[in-house]
Prior knowledge:
This protein has 144 residues and is mainly alpha-helical. 81% of the residues lie in helices and 0% in strands.
Amino acid sequence: MIEQDSVKLLRECDAGVKMGISSIKDVLGYVRSAKMKEALQRCREAHEALEKEIEEELKKFSDEGKEPNPIAKSMSWLKTTVKLSFNESDHTIADLMTDGCDMGVKSLSRYLNQYKAAEEFAKDIAKKLIHLEADLAVELRGFL
């Protein structure tokens, strides 16, 4: 049960970190504020570092990880594209990104509670990702 919960939690973290990286990449080209661009790039780099850590842990279990849900990813891309086609402002980007961060925090918190038997290292990774998402949302509130 412990190993199974650890792998399941890591898979969800893998999907979440990939979704975060993809979302940041989707909006970076539209950002006007140097401060916002810096915050997003810093967060993307932190996500990429965490992605490597997750992949290493999953390899120990001979697991290839998990891609984000294709429907969720497509819907996110579509929402981003439509909103930015009407209003290419930093406000719109902050709105989109804080919504995404909030959804990520909510989902990861649910998985953290669902996979209670996961080993501490897996829980720590989930908590790191939750904090990355929450911190970015707070940082972007100044652009709303």
